[in-house]
């Protein structure tokens, strides 16, 4: 029987396996204790509050890759850089004949700053931004996770 753990349970389980305390992991991530505790209690907390780079750091602290922590077992068939995502947004808007404002309304996120400076915004916006944007472009959002070293 295959038991599927949610993200929060995986974070907790892997933290314990790595021999780290909640306080230690929180400090390394620059989070307060309550914020980190939420990561171990709510499955959606990671995507709604951490940037992709913070989440990659968390996975590294836990001795795993972010893709392994977040995937459902499927592996993306391609890797898409953050810069390429911005290019794909522009191409989609042009192809669909809509404005950036209209696409922002569809996605539910402001995109202009991202189009101007993709890395800066990726360092500031939570993973949920990437998930929503990728979803509206028909992209598996996991393909946006930068290459990670094997652990």
Topology readout:
Layout: H1 7-17, H2 22-29, H3 33-39, H4 45-49, H5 52-61, H6 66-70, H7 82-96, H8 100-107, H9 112-116, H10 118-122, H11 127-137
Description of the molecule:
The protein has 151 residues and is an all-alpha fold. Helices cover 60% and strands 0% of the residues. It contains 11 helices and no strands. α2 packs across α3. The protein starts with 6 loop residues before the first helix and ends in a 14-residue tail after the last helix. The mean pLDDT is 91.
Task: Describe, in short, the structure shown.
This protein is mostly helical. It has helices spanning 7-17, 22-29, 33-39, 45-49, 52-61, 66-70, 82-96, 100-107, 112-116, 118-122, 127-137.
Query: Counting H and I runs of at least 4 residues, what is the number of helices?
Result: 11
Q: What class, by secondary structure content?
A: mainly alpha
Q: Mind describing the biggest β-sheet? A: none
Low-confidence stretches: none
Mean pLDDT: 91
| Number of strand elements | 0
- Helix fraction bin: 55-70%
Shape: elongated
Q: State the order of secondary-structure elements, H for helix, E for strand.
A: HHHHHHHHHHH
Estimated radius of gyration: 16 Å
Task: Spell out the key features of this protein.
151 residues, mainly alpha, 0% strand
């Amino acid at each position: 029987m295959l038991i599927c753990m949610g993200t929060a349970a995986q974070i907790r389980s892997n933290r314990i396996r790595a021999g780290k305390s909640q306080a230690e992991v929180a400090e390394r991530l620059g989070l307060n204790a309550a914020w980190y505790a939420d990561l171990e209690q709510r499955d959606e907390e990671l995507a709604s509050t951490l940037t992709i780079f913070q989440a990659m750091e968390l996975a590294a602290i836990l001795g795993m890759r972010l893709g392994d922590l977040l995937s459902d077992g499927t592996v993306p068939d391609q890797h898409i850089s953050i810069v390429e995502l911005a290019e794909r947004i522009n191409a989609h808007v042009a192809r669909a004949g809509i404005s950036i404002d209209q696409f922002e309304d569809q996605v539910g996120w402001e995109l202009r700053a991202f189009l101007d400076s993709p890395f800066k915004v990726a360092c500031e916006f939570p993973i949920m931004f990437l998930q929503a944007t990728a979803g509206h472009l028909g992209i598996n959002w996991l393909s946006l996770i930068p290459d990670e070293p094997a652990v």
